[in-house]
Amino acid sequence: KAGVTQTPRYLIKTRGQQVTLSCSPISGHRSVSWYQQTPGQGLQFLFEYFSETQRNKGNFPGRFSGRQFSNSRSEMNVSTLELGDSALYLCASSLKLMNTEAFFGQGTRLTVV
Amino acid sequence: QQQVKQSPQSLIVQKGGISIINCAYENTAFDYFPWYQQFPGKGPALLIAIRPDVSEKKEGRFTISFNKSAKQFSLHIMDSQPGDSATYFCAASGLRAGNMLTFGGGTRLMVKP
Prior knowledge:
By secondary structure, chain A is an all-beta fold. Chain A has no helices and eleven strands.
């Protein structure tokens, strides 16, 4: 069974640009969550999607958004990039809503210059 | 507000020794406590998890001890091996706590041969 797949693995963007990251969950998993990992703030929850609906949102500005498609694949978008958005963005999938086993992808390393 | 506190930040253990990492939580609505292992350049991998109805769970060389009254839980790695050298994260979640994973700050473990 394939794991969680995130694309692309690496991205370099310029301040002010926008970026879209993609996540394909484990087959059969319907919940997808996104996390930001930085050396200073650690792992922070961005949002969770289940059955194409955002179920929960972390404490991030509105520049961070996401969506989930009918096949459970998810995308997150960051608009008007700032230097502080440089981070490893991780996607996790689980069979049901979080609070059960969650499996992470390898992440997308975003660098904003 | 950091709801899960993890210690120590770094740990050096000799091969064959016991590695112990501790976490404390504040939110009594948490009812699921997983541990993740992360190698450089990889996403966190689920190691072992526990729910509050048991005080201990063991899987191979990894054991979680859980103290509900003290709101603390810990990871013990028996017979630590150099291949265990990684960063370990404790986490907590709960259906009544927003359902997302709240992570500790991480412990960088180095096992010396």
